Amino acid sequence: MEYDVIIPAAGSGTRMGAGKNKLLLELNERPIILHTLEVFAGEPDCSKMIVVIQPKEEKIFREMTVGSPYEKKLAFVYGGAERQHSVYNGLKAVSTGIVLVHDGARPFIRRPVIKQLVSEAVRSGAAIAAVPVKDTIKQAVDHEVVQTIDRSSLWQVQTPQAFRLPILQQAHEWARAEGYLGTDEASLVEKKGDISIKIIKSDYDNIKITTPEDLYFARAILEKRAQ
Ligand code: CTP
Ligand code: MG
């Protein structure tokens, strides 16, 4: 089934502390964002990659991708102050019935997961990638433990998140009207409350490159995959 993917890439990388957008940092001598784009570039069902960028970085992103084999699949859209605003802007460029949202900062997503997400979104409307929580999770107030949360029902959520287009559009419009800000797309759909969201088990190595140590993990993942 054909789909467009919105790739938010308009962040500042504050937690990485590199003094620039972390997606421009290199892994194997190529910017992180190119690793992410290449995954979807190789997906025949992906018709368009809508990359959401900051206006001041447009030249860099265009120059990085000009002449690439997937140039025709690319569309650039300007982002907003928060990730949610960036995705909202990206939604306006979608022209397929199924839409995926995938963080530019997750270059290690595997194709079978993408395929399962798309199938599930077609079938039920909304599907997200996630992995079971491995650690013991405790709730605390002022560094004092309140309780241990039963982790058997807990999932650590990733992207991609896949939706039938009207479901995500309506959830975003609802969030805008309510002034609700979520940390992922599914939370908007959940809060709006009228459809169930399915989980597709993903991989622990689909990390979001966020803090400096994630670059070490990222290099190790690349090395392992090259073997
Ligand atoms: N993003 C975006 N628009 C924003 C903020 C974030 O498109 N206003 C994108 C980032 O570029 C990233 C993804 O959303 O690909 C996930 O965000 P995050 O990991 O938080 O990246 P940053 O916001 O760049 O990092 P930080 O929060 O540390 O500043
Ligand atoms: Mg952020």
TrEMBL record:
Site residues, Positions MEP for the nucleophilic attack: R151, K208
Residues with site note (Transition state stabilizer): R15, K22
Pathway: Isoprenoid biosynthesis; isopentenyl diphosphate biosynthesis via DXP pathway; isopentenyl diphosphate from 1-deoxy-D-xylulose 5-phosphate: step 2/6
Catalytic reactions of this protein: 2-C-methyl-D-erythritol 4-phosphate + CTP + H(+) = 4-CDP-2-C-methyl-D-erythritol + diphosphate
UniProt-listed InterPro entries: IspD, IspD/TarI, IspD/TarI_cytidylyltransf_bact, ISPD_synthase_CS, Nucleotide-diphossugar_trans
EC number: 2.7.7.60
Keywords: Isoprene biosynthesis, Nucleotidyltransferase, Transferase
Statement: the UniProt record of this protein carries the keyword Transferase: yes
An MF annotation (GO) of this entry: 2-C-methyl-D-erythritol 4-phosphate cytidylyltransferase activity
Top-level taxon: Bacteria
Gene3D superfamilies linked to this entry: Spore Coat Polysaccharide Biosynthesis Protein SpsA, Chain A (3.90.550.10)
Pfam families the record matches: IspD
Primary role: Catalyzes the formation of 4-diphosphocytidyl-2-C-methyl-D-erythritol from CTP and 2-C-methyl-D-erythritol 4-phosphate (MEP).
Family statement: Belongs to the IspD/TarI cytidylyltransferase family. IspD subfamily.
Listed NCBIfam families: ispD
Record protein name field: 2-C-methyl-D-erythritol 4-phosphate cytidylyltransferase
